[in-house]
Amino acid sequence: MANKICCEETEVSKTITFNDRDYLNDILSNEKEITKNMCTSLTEASNNNLYNELTTIYNTCISLQQEAYELAWNNGWYKLEEAEKTKITQKVKDLQKKLDELSN
To answer: Quick one: how far is CA 71 from the chain centroid?
Structure first.
């Protein structure tokens, strides 16, 4: 079984109403969606002024997303699992094979 990588979890009330963890998860989810939509907007910008303005907004969005992630991580509400070495090795081989196929 893979090892969990996370900070100590901050306890929150487990009720039907939103708690801090629920609010933060909602914020993080929305920031991710906004960031994806901003990417589309950037690729479809019709002139340089619009593109520059959207770039400023996009940079703000990704900064807010990173802050939300860090807050969730520091509260132990976002967990990662350490991948097994064999899975990493296999993934590298798979990606190298795809890269080789694209090179031909």
So the answer is: 13
Chain center to CA of 18: 22
pLDDT digits (tens, 9 = 90+) for 28-76: 999 999 999 999 999 999 899 999 999 999 999 999 999 999 999 999 8
Contact 72, 19 (CB under 8 A): no
Say how many Å lie between the first and final Cα of the chain, rounded: 38
SS (H, E, C) 3-71: CEECCCCCCCCCCCCCCHHHHHHHHHHHHHHHHHHHHHHHHCCCCHHHHHHHHHHHHHHHHHHHHHHHH
**Tokens standing for residue 75:** 């509260």
What's the confidence (pLDDT) of residue 1? 44
Cβ atoms < 10 Å from Cβ of 31? 19
> Against a cut of 0.85, is the pTM above it?
no
Side-chain-side CA neighbours of residue 35 (13 Å): 14
Q: Are 13 and 81 in contact (CB under 8 A)?
A: no
